[in-house]
Amino acid sequence: MRKQYRQAVNALLAAERIVLAGHVNPDGDTLGCVLAMAHVLRRLGKDVTAISTDGVPDNLRWLPGAELIVRGTERRDFDLAVACDAGALERVGRSVIAAIQSAPQLLNIDHHIPDGVFGDILIVDSAAAATAELIWQLILKLSARSNKALADKDVAVCLMTGLITDTGSFRFMNVTPNTFLLAARLQRLGALPAPIAELVFENRSCASVKLLGRALDSLKLSHDGRVAWSQITAQDFDDLNATDSETEGIVNHVRSIQGVDVGILFREVPGQKVRISLRARDGADVNRIANAFGGGGHRLAAGCSVTPPLKGVEEAVVAEALRQLDARG
Ligand code: AMP
Ligand code: MN
Ligand code: MN
Prior knowledge:
Blueprint: H1 2-14, E1 17-21, H2 28-43, E2 47-51, E3 69-70, E4 80-84, H3 97-102, E5 106-110, E6 121-124, H4 131-146, H5 153-167, H6 177-188, H7 193-201, H8 206-217, E7 220-221, E8 227-232, H9 234-240, H10 250-255, E9 262-268, E10 274-280, H11 286-291, E11 296-297, E12 301-306, H12 310-328
Parallel strand pairs: 1-2, 1-4, 2-3, 4-5, 5-6, 8-9
Antiparallel strand pairs: 7-8, 9-10, 10-12, 11-12
Helix pairs in contact: 1-4, 2-4, 2-5, 4-5, 5-6, 5-7
């Protein structure tokens, strides 16, 4: 990986106009990484365009530099593009791909299980708990090469947000000693985990908590008790005037049931495909289930989008989950 970091540092220092992009339905890791890079590159005097095709969700508006984020650009004069936490090129958003691909070089920095390789320089490590861990390594190397301490409190808050989001406040199986070592360094820079965790997880809209109620009301369990699933219908979204970003975290409640290996949340998002979030306990692999429906992610957290109707989708995905659990024994 040393060579890849060296290539990335060279490309970033050589470029003047840099476009950064996160993934659709952005979370704290993708936005934290895009913004941390934006802060660092601006400090290096670069012309930075930071794109999140779906903007910044309400619960992450407080991220330092959130106002820098744009939803797209007509510019095609970039020297370098950087995709952060994307998983696959399409996940930067259909209307952003052209801007990203117009740059002569693309740096892909990510911790997803690769779903088709993309990019010219790859810093891809699925052992990292969050892309924030990889961005930190990159910032360290950029600091060393440019002889500047590039990480300040804003950068630290952005990266701590990525860690806290993707580890569920340091509780998930993806946490390693490196995660805690980085968290300690970020806290020393002024990023306090408690207020960030509160802003990320306890800053919900009223509609979002009511959606949780609807989801839990619909909860079903497979005969063997190993798969649990819930749904949020178009009617639920309509009744509560809610959006899909307000369903964040609900799937964790579905997985939290004793004996459940796979928890699934189906959302009939008005005017869109059925969106599906899958979560596993250690031992199961929901990335493979999502793969069967054209999606992806990680072993323990994955997602996909499938053509309606909801009922048929539900039956097919639950059947696939059971089939994979049975095959594994
Ligand atoms: P979510 O359930 O939306 O929080 O997503 C969980 C994980 O799965 C994240 O790492 C996403 O990047 C990934 N993921 C979600 N939806 C998709 C999709 N349609 N295609 C590929 N990966 C996805
Ligand atoms: Mn993400
Ligand atoms: Mn991530």
